[in-house]
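Help! Submission page says 'invalid entity' but I think these are all valid:
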Amino acid sequence: MARSKELVPSIGRLSRSQVYARRGLYKGLKKSEKAPASDVAPVKEKPVGGAKNGEKRLIPTAKAPRFYPAEDVHQPKKSRKSPKLTKLRPSITPGTVLILLAGRFRGKRVVFLKQLSSGLLLVTGPFKINGVPLRRVSQAYVLATSTKVDLGDFKVDEKINDAYFAKPKSKGKQSAEEEFFSEGKPKEKEAFPESKSADQKAVDSAIIAAVKKTENLSKYLKASWGLSKGQFPHQLVF
Amino acid sequence: MPPSNFKRFVEVGRVVLIKDGPLAGRIAVIAEIIDHNRAIIDGPTTDVPRQAFPYRHLTLTNFKLTKLPRAAGTGAIRKQVEAEGIVEKWNKSSWAQKRAAVQKRRSLTDFERFTVMLAKKARADRVRKAVKAAKA
């Protein structure tokens, strides 16, 4: 907000009228509309069993708290700030070849597809070339090269988003006996879902077609990256 | 006096290579000698403005403009440079070509380094096969 800088406590640089002009109060204060009160009835009816009980009780929809602090506690103000999407480095555009620096696929060169709403980057090997599936990767653990694959108008299916990568809800915990007996035996793995392989193939077919157009690019994506003797990252051009 | 071992002299018309600073890597011509530390250099065709320059940041090359009078202006130097084709001679020299190769190698991207590696392997392979065929 256009406050005036404090020169000395309680003396600002700008006068009262200057602050008024700075804040544009001649336009009038903004009146925000309060959201209309929700239409939930304060009291709910619930059926009750047992004869001669009156069959219904009126229960308040919002329960009173079970505990009140002895003295009034100061409630912190609610923050009105919301986080912005992680800034994508300008060197990373759809089709850029990235080098993964950490994780299971460290050293692999992969193709960048798009940035998801969580800020993570969606990449793919392509799977047929180097075994990296559709995967989310953090921008901090990635080297962007200047090599780009021309994806043209190819857009990744909207259904591949952060929710797509969520882990499926695990089955209920085994009882102690079952766990004892099954210790040592390999845990049952669920077969890889068909739909995910189909998604992978759909995305990769377009990318592999584009990769084949450049000579040696598929060999490049197949090979791993590493530093050799005498190579220093700050002296290399990627 | 015993014959001098020096071949390249700081003199009017000597072509110099600038070693340090924003103009590093460019060649210019010595137009005038100021004192034992500095000279006025000028490179009208190589984007070097006429200026005083310390010898510390210069390297003398083999090339010399023969018909340059002392304290020649930029225009005269440009005419001489174009007449004698000094810049082309410099670019053809192995010194300049080695410098260009080193600069290229340092600016290779990751993909280019990979293709160079494949090319080296292919060449080594052909050499090995040729040697084997020659031995047989």
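Support: the input was valid. A stray whitespace character was the problem, and the output above is from the cleaned input. Residues 194-213 of chain A form the longest helix (20 residues).
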